[in-house]
Design a protein that fits this description.
- 2 copies of one chain form a homodimer.
- Chain A is of the alpha/beta class.
- Chain A has one domain: Nucleotidyltransferase, domain 5 (2-Layer Sandwich), CATH 3.30.420.10.
- In chain A, 45% of the residues lie in helices and 18% in strands.
- The longest helix of chain A has 25 residues.
- Chain A is globular.
- Chains A and B meet through α1 and α2 of A and α1 and α2 of B.
Amino acid sequence: MATTAREPRAPHEPDPAPGRVVGIDPGLNVTGYAVVEPTARGPYVVEAGVIRPRGDSARTMGDRLHLIHQGILEVLDAYPPSALALEQVHSHISHPRTAILMAHARGVIVLAAAERGVPVAGYAASRIKKTLTGSGKAPKEQMQHAIRVELGLDQLPEPHDVADACAVALCHFQIARNLRGLGGA
Amino acid sequence: MATTAREPRAPHEPDPAPGRVVGIDPGLNVTGYAVVEPTARGPYVVEAGVIRPRGDSARTMGDRLHLIHQGILEVLDAYPPSALALEQVHSHISHPRTAILMAHARGVIVLAAAERGVPVAGYAASRIKKTLTGSGKAPKEQMQHAIRVELGLDQLPEPHDVADACAVALCHFQIARNLRGLGGA
């Protein structure tokens, strides 16, 4: 076998210590990622960036998926997380073609997580917005503000794919924190 | 790296000798595959079957994608093909949710092909029907008849996922044959 599968870390149990989270914004052209860790002063972005398959090595969809898969494995190996968080793909999407192409990228990202035994958490876009701003219909500016405040940054992370990856990681953080709070009460 | 990437076999050049084709019908629940080879008496199914992620090892989407990816790599390693053929996912699909889920499976299948340097050919459903029956709107029975006749079988391959995998492989065969015919004229 070409793939090395580690034992899953009990992905169906509630996460006991959320620790490090990798947030991903999947795309065949640009995939954003953000490695976020808890600190005493709040969540902190340890590492973030984009995987941008381009040039001769990214001519086919297969080439692109290969580069995305490799890139995510590298992130997971460099910063082994307790969870990988990404947006759910909706059925009631207004651009099915875009969603279907994106789902190819999402597939190899979820595969990479499974190969490394990292549990995957999917969040609806509205849940991410509601968790970060209090409103599931928050406009972009409000989301950008929440990301900056939550991460204690003066500037919004760029490009927007990285900001979106931060947002889904922060959403996972907050939901996991709330779950622990309820569990401890 | 966990993945072993071989040098691509010039996937953008026309296929010089179609040889063996692996046809795939992707799905998160059932993925059908068919290994079809040219013989003097026409195309022949060397091996066919389904990858059906089930049970405790297939609880999450990641588990399923992992099993599908492994299964396809095993087929490609056991029967190295000159091409992998599968249906295109359409944008004007009536069931976007199903198409999006299927695209996750499609992503890890296309990845497996890229990892093994196998060119991928995608065909629209209507093209597969037209190539096999002469009509892009052929009903199911006509397609089943064409698959049986083309493969010289008394019975249609079962389950239908295998028959669909045979159909897309046969479509690739026929189109590659016609291309060679034109090239030689």
